[in-house]
Specification:
The complex is a heterodimer of chains A (about 120) and B (about 400).
Chain A (H helix, E strand, L loop, with lengths): L1 H13 L3 H15 L10 H19 L21 H10 L15 H13 L3
Chain B lengths: L5 H11 L12 E6 L4 E6 L4 E6 L9 E4 L5 E5 L4 E6 L4 E7 L3 E7 L5 E8 L1 E7 L5 E6 L1 E2 L4 E2 L2 E7 L3 E6 L4 E6 L7 E5 L6 E6 L5 E6 L5 E5 L7 E4 L23 E2 L2 E5 L5 E6 L4 E7 L4 E6 L5 E6 L7 E5 L5 E5 L5 E6 L5 E6 L4 E6 L5 E6 L3 E6 L9
Classes of the chains: A mainly alpha (about 120), B mainly beta (about 400).
Chain lengths: ~120, ~400
């Protein structure tokens, strides 16, 4: 299962056309994020996740998510990238790039929560 | 009215002199970056205390600093492209230039008159007068035939008023010669390896070594013989093995060198690589607790201290450089980000980000000697860097 997802993610990374990326990504997202995974993290966990996002994601993407070695992740940078795509990228990384998979540290619902946070506003 | 006695006048005058301008040297000063708040704390290492805070430096994620040779001024490179000059004696921001959109670090020239900044956006290096922060030169990191620009990393100063840096996207190393600032000369070395992520220059200014993220090995440039090109060393330290994910890019700095050996983080594996600098061969590997981020030799070269990437960033391990045996391991607290030895190495400063603390440890007894509150501290930089090539 994970191997399939990895393969799809690799394909997604290689595809040049936005439409192709979207369709492949939605497959990945469907596979990766089960429908029941929408429960919000607890308040304490949300605080931990915000710290992780600012401090650890921020190592590469910048503390304000304006980009660094990794691309910028502000809402205006993420138009056209559905939350499911972002959640899958968080969980499985981007093979062939420096983006690692955060799957060992995050549940599906936590990744989905982070993705929606990225889409909404600055953390 | 009675005349005021002369002695009383003197005392009154002394009382009104600004305390910060009191006569003191700068050799024991330093700064601690509080990266989320955009502030610096000025510290001193004689009694391990904080002297004050400087505010308004912008986004200091991944901020680093270099020092003027008199140790009075620090040039701070912020992620947001801001270049700030601060006065450590007066604890104040002197000048700030918004020189790019996104930057990663910088260097000060051999003669101390130029400050260079490595930029991600726009990719390249910009050079400023260290006195005025007025622009002196701009070196866009254009590569290939399609006019692309690369993010620049691993910028260091080298003898001959040169700056050396690496192009992350292009896999190139460039040497900029600033011996005549009105005629900047750039030599380019291509195909050095995939995604150089950072670099160091040895403290004699001779060897520039770039770590590679995109493949195994390191790129070595002998600055005495740049015409000989870049040579790949340790090309297959991870041959055939699946790399582990890297949750924070490792760093390289001049003090990875201990005597004739260099100690560098392996990328994507939980090891420190030991390189014999006579033959540039791998002579050992030290298994460690996680992906190493900083591997730093104590100034006497007897120990190396290793810190780690998430999720093992609560650890520090210390190894003997002769036997490669671990001599100490401890957990200073959550999210250890940076370490800085005092100039003669008897103490080390450690930033513990998620505990909002900077700790000072004795490097012989490993006892904690001091602990200072700091707001999400990251880099710690001492003025002694101002007298070292490549720092």
């Amino acid at each position: 299962m994970i191997a399939v997802v990895r393969l799809l993610a690799r394909l997604a990374a290689l595809m040049a056309s936005g439409l192709a990326i979207l369709s492949v990504v939605s497959l990945v997202a469907l596979a990766a994020v089960p429908a029941h995974a929408s429960a919000e993290p607890s308040d304490q966990r949300q605080a931990e996740l915000r710290n992780l996002l600012i401090q650890d994601c921020g190592s590469c993407h910048g503390l304000t998510l304006a980009g660094g070695l990794g691309p910028p992740l502000r809402p205006q940078d993420l138009t056209g990238k559905p939350p499911e795509y972002l959640a899958a990228t968080i969980l499985y990384g981007r093979p062939g790039t420096a983006m690692p998979p955060w799957r060992p540290f995050l549940s599906d619902s936590e990744a989905a929560w982070l993705a929606s946070l990225l889409k909404q506003s600055r953390p | 009215m009675k005349p005021i006695p002369y002695r009383l006048l003197l005392i009154a005058a002394a009382l009104f002199l600004p305390a910060a301008a009191a006569e003191r040297g700068t050799g024991d000063l330093g700064i601690v970056v509080e990266r989320a708040a955009g502030t610096l704390q000025v510290i001193e290492t004689s009694t391990n205390s904080a002297l004050g805070r400087i505010e308004g430096l912008g986004d200091l994620s991944h901020a680093s600093a270099v020092f003027s040779r008199d140790g009075r001024y620090a040039f701070v490179f912020g992620r947001d492209g801001g270049l700030s000059k601060v006065d450590l004696l007066e604890t104040r921001l002197v000048k700030r230039a918004q020189q790019a959109g996104n930057s990663i670090g910088g260097a000060i020239s051999q003669d101390g008159r130029l400050v260079a900044v490595a930029n991600y956006e726009p990719g390249g290096v910009r050079i400023f007068d260290s006195e005025t922060l007025e622009p002196v030169g701009d070196i866009p990191a254009r590569y290939g035939t399609e006019g692309k620009t690369s993010k620049v990393v691993g910028l260091v100063d080298a003898p001959g008023n040169r700056f050396v840096f690496s192009l992350w996207d292009a896999g190139e190393i460039w040497i900029a010669d600033l011996s005549d600032r009105s005629r900047i000369q750039v030599s380019k070395l291509a195909n050095v390896g995939a995604n150089p992520y950072d670099a160091l220059i040895t403290s004699d200014g001779r060897y520039y070594i770039a770590g590679l993220f995109g493949e195994d090995g390191l790129a070595l440039l002998d600055l005495w013989h740049p015409e000989a090109g870049v040579r790949r060393i340790l090309p297959d330290y991870g041959r055939g093995e699946e790399k582990l994910p890297v949750y924070k890019m490792p760093h390289l700095e001049g003090w990875a060198v201990a005597g004739r050996r260099a100690f560098v983080p392996a990328v994507g594996r939980n090891e420190v690589l030991v390189i014999d600098m006579e033959g540039w061969r791998e002579v050992g590997r030290i298994p460690v607790k996680g992906q190493p981020v900083f591997v730093m030799a104590r100034p006497d070269a007897r120990q190396v201290w290793v810190s780690f990437a998430f999720p093992n960033n609560q650890h520090i391990q210390v190894f003997d450089t002769e036997t490669l045996a671990q001599v100490h391991a401890f957990e200073p607290g959550p999210a250890v980000l940076h370490m800085e030895f005092e100039p003669r190495g008897e103490e080390i400063w450690v930033s513990v980000r998620d505990a909002d603390r900077v700790d000072v440890y004795d490097t012989a007894s490993f006892e904690r000697k001091a602990s200072l509150p700091a707001n999400k501290p990251s880099g710690i930089f001492l003025t002694a860097r101002g007298h070292r090539i490549g720092l």
